[in-house]
Amino acid sequence: MNGASPRTIAVTGAAGMLGSHLTARLLADGHHVHGLDIREYGSDPHERLEWSVADVRDDAAIGAALARTKPDVVIHTAAALPSYPREQIRSIIVDGARGVFGAAAALGTERIVHVSSTAVYGLPSVVPTTEEYPREPTDDYSRAKADAEVVAEEFRAKGHCVSILRPKTFLGPGRMGLFAMLFEWAEEGRNFPVLGSGNVLTQMLAVEDLVDGVLAAVHAEPEAANDTYNLAATRFGTVREQFQAILDAAGHGRRVVSVPAAPAVALLGALQRAGLSPVYGRLLHKLRGDSYVSVERAATGLGFSPRYSTRDALLRSYEWWRGTDTKSATSGNTSQQPWRQGVLAAAKVFF
Q: Is pTM, for the whole model, over 0.85?
């Protein structure tokens, strides 16, 4: 428990990658956990775990579920993926946040921890990007994430303690999504393409470090918790270096290879708009320029000190992927499933 008294903590999106890691950690730390998700609980029951099947867009269901356990803290992790249809992205992320925060506030919940994203910065022109950088969303997903933060700030302005956490892309055991494409190509002994030189700095975050950051916000003094924080690895390198680490781990002697950036971006953008590729526009642009944030505020306010580098997090995800029997392509409705590669699967023959 690290000196913290047991509490009742509700986690939305508890069956997701982050939610499941959080739930396991909270139970290990001695807390009572109320998991809420649209999916059933998939593991052995735990005496300190209550589970509710509920959609965050269903205000009545969420309100009734939270009223049963009256949590001290609500951690809101439920979200949509960038690949979801526009209307679902907005309803899940924005309407879901408003409903969850409203239900928590009505019960007098002492603290809300909202897991947002550095996507709210859009494509920032300043690195390292600090929390003072304006929200400049560029697509449906980042606009929804930005608007959900506005909802969180509305509740903060009403006197509620609301932590807003902005993690970089997080990964680790349980994460597939688009990373499954890199892992699959590496395992098959193929080279892997990057846009341009690949010598741009990119920063991610191990899910274990994100869990540490969330728990730091749960246990922080109110004045520290009631703030907005970036969370990311403090050790990171270039796209080329970090992707090469996966190819090296695969052991086939393959290399990261450069492809001309401008034509590739134009082609991938057209394929994505046609529904033939899962690679979305903001990701393409992030891979063409340095993308990293400052975590100094989190270090000072929350004592955040990540244990893993971005390279570590990638390699841990890959090693987990190698040992799983769920590698085959699926709908990609969650980050725990590999996304369909579309026409990119056919491009493997060239690498």
A: yes
Output the furthest CA–CA distance in the chain (Å, rounded).
Answer: 58
Domain ranges for the chain, please list them: 8-171+204-231, 179-202+235-292+308-350
The CA distance from 48 to 141, in Å, is: 34
Name the band, by pLDDT with cuts 50, 70 and 90, for residue 177.
confident
Helices (H), 140-260: 140-157, 179-187, 207-219, 222-225, 239-250
How many C-beta atoms lie closer than 10 Å to residue 240's C-beta?
A: 20
Instruction: Summarize the confidence of residues 285-298 as an average pLDDT.
Output: 86
**What average pLDDT does range 251-263 have in this prediction?**
88
* CA pseudo-torsion sign 248, 321, 165, 87: positive
Distance CA 99, CA 262 (A): 42
Neighbours of 110 (CB within 10 A): 15
pLDDT at 287 over 90: no
CA 146, distance to chain mean position in Å, is 15
pLDDT, tens digit, 9 for 90 and up, residues 66-120: 999 999 999 999 999 888 899 999 999 999 999 999 999 999 999 999 999 999 9
Task: Kindly state the average pLDDT of the residues 120-130.
Answer: 95
CATH class, domain 179-202+235-292+308-350, is: alpha beta
Instruction: Specify the CATH number of the domain 8-171+204-231.
Output: 3.40.50.720
- E strands present in the chain: 8-12, 32-37, 49-53, 73-76, 111-115, 162-167, 170-171, 192-195, 201-202, 205-206, 228-231, 237-238, 256-259
Q: Name, in order, each residue with C-beta under 8 angstroms of 5's C-beta and a sequence gap of 6 or more.
A: none
9 phi, psi to nearest 5 deg = -125, 125
**Mean pLDDT computed over every residue of the chain:** 89
Would you mind telling me the total number of residues written for the chain in this entry?
Answer: 351
Ramachandran angles phi, psi of 256, nearest 5°: -75, 130
Question: Any bridge partners for residue 34, and if so which?
Answer: 10, 50
Name the token pair of 221.
């003094």
Residue 317 makes CB contacts below 8 A (sequence gap 6+) with: 171, 172, 173, 175, 179, 183
